[in-house]
Amino acid sequence: MATTIIDVAKEANVSPSTVSRVIANNPRISERTKQKVREVMDRLDYHPNFQARNLAAKSTKTIGVIMASSSVLAFQNPFFPEVLRGICSAAHASKYGMYLSTGETEEEIFDEVVSMTQGRRVDGIILLYSKVKDRTMDYLQSIDFPFVVVGRPFENEASVTYVDNDNTAIAAEVVDYLLSLGHQDIAFVGGDINYVVSRDRLAGYQQALETAGIPFQQAYYLQDSTVNEDGASAIDALFHLPNRPTALIAHDDLTAYEIISILERKEINVPTDISIISFNNHVLSQHLRPPLTSVDIQIYDLGLEATECLLNKMDDPKLPATHRIIGAKIITRESCARRGID
Amino acid sequence: MATTIIDVAKEANVSPSTVSRVIANNPRISERTKQKVREVMDRLDYHPNFQARNLAAKSTKTIGVIMASSSVLAFQNPFFPEVLRGICSAAHASKYGMYLSTGETEEEIFDEVVSMTQGRRVDGIILLYSKVKDRTMDYLQSIDFPFVVVGRPFENEASVTYVDNDNTAIAAEVVDYLLSLGHQDIAFVGGDINYVVSRDRLAGYQQALETAGIPFQQAYYLQDSTVNEDGASAIDALFHLPNRPTALIAHDDLTAYEIISILERKEINVPTDISIISFNNHVLSQHLRPPLTSVDIQIYDLGLEATECLLNKMDDPKLPATHRIIGAKIITRESCARRGID
DNA sequence: CTGAAAGCGCTTACAG
DNA sequence: CTGAAAGCGCTTACAG
């Protein structure tokens, strides 16, 4: 059996309470006693049992991280490691541990969250996604468990703590950038519309067009799932339009890569024939040919600040909901060009 | 306060022991009682407290996943999300949870592992890397804690359970492939030599050359850190050699991308002027221009099988160490070509 | 500044 | 098939 607090207490000729207080570095214990107890802890190679400590103290010092369902996509998405890195870094700084969800379906994830929270496996939860009508989020709110969302909540925005980019504004900015290059016929390949981020970016796209007096065309709007499933024909349709687009906004770099590959096979040149810009600024985007113009949404900071918000919330559950907006900026590379004269 | 086993027991008119047995689905409890108790659990929305259960049962049903130090690299490495996906999937199938290390330095990671194991925070550990002279691994072995390594251990290979590719053989195969294309002057950009994987691949490279009767040239061997720090000049040196290489093997796709970008700036064409092949077969490798020939090492399977091995080990700690070798294969794309006539 | 005691919420021999 | 009791290894009022 591993050595326990009792062993240490006996060896140091103090009570277990005292050992416990030394572990917690309680100021009411004399330095002399602390030294003595610490020496014994070292000598016996004592390490407190987490379960016992957590049970007694009613806290776990761990954060639950919930990924979106369909793990293949969640993991493949370059967003994931980067946001995790941010979370990791903030958690580590506050000596918190990270517990990762493993559920694969929405149902499983929901059940996992219920048992994580009810079973007190974690002290707080970070939701790595924001979905329309999300049971999990509703549930967390209903039991008043400390949580924070990376992304803007679909409902109850004011009462939920979240960290997000201003996706609507960024998407509008992207459109403006293309407009400034002389483009008018701008296609938009958006993400899954069940995620709020996809809706926000679409809204930004539409608003910017409207501001510029350019009507929104349904045919210019695709979902990235279409491209990933049968990319060639979706892109084909786009390029057989009477006014074929001269610019295209992709929901993320992966989609952009996919599209560029398809275009290449059709001998459509980027950026000469069509300008392409996307979101997320993947590490590899600079290595693509042409190097991809992409929006840096500061994923690491999203994770970092989400964790800080959560830590605050856990510290003081009565704190009002906070919202942090992380800046983003267009990283100009070579996939966008001034519109040629038709 | 959350509802406890006592609440359920009272409500169902049984003892807490019985409720506990119903939770564990103990066959000695009658179906009738089970039904009754389950109904009450549902009605009261009861969820067992993990800490209490773990403390009493002396098991945590969670796996600790330890990443290599220097988290920036660990996270950025595309290896990470993919191996995690494999682990996740196997853990989930066995209803295990995942606890992630957050340490940033080797020292911190070591301390984390000590407290994870001594503090019984996890039942088993997966080491996501294998380093030369690794304290952490030595420690795990010394306390006889269930663990498995993704990668080949540097020492005590026979007594440590691990999952790995046969990196030596694969590297040799890569060389043979290039030889078959007529290349003789083959450069090798390897990984950090503190990792066993880097050593194995280098060994495979050297062996294959030797078998082919081609002397190993120190000038043809670089470490990827050199390329990442001051890529241009390292590559420059390579191309100013009297016999400049006509082929190059890169430790991973990221390094290959980096090199290709540098070459492009020098107007050295891949594959006309130099053939490039690398390891890991990143999702995006097919989208690079030219599409990158790369070795698929089946990262997902590495994670999956490592977890299975660990689960077995935890089930029966007396089991002898097992070693699983995961297959790998060269995915031929367009970055390698037959050697031109000089 | 320190200790004795109760309690955190479970599981599991032991007994019947 | 079920229950009473001890115990898992801590923390934390309470008391002095």
UniProtKB/TrEMBL annotation, chains A, B:
SMART domains: HTH_LACI
One MF term in the entry's GO annotations: transcription cis-regulatory region binding
Sequence ranges assigned to domain HTH lacI-type in this UniProt record: 3-57
CDD domains, per the entry: HTH_LacI, PBP1_MalR-like
Domain of life the protein comes from: Bacteria
InterPro entries the record matches: HTH_LacI, LacI/GalR-like_sensor, Lambda_DNA-bd_dom_sf, Peripla_BP_I
UniProt keyword terms in alphabetical order: DNA-binding, Transcription, Transcription regulation
PANTHER family named in the record: HTH-TYPE TRANSCRIPTIONAL REGULATOR GALS, LACI-RELATED TRANSCRIPTIONAL REPRESSOR
Protein name per the record: LacI family transcriptional regulator
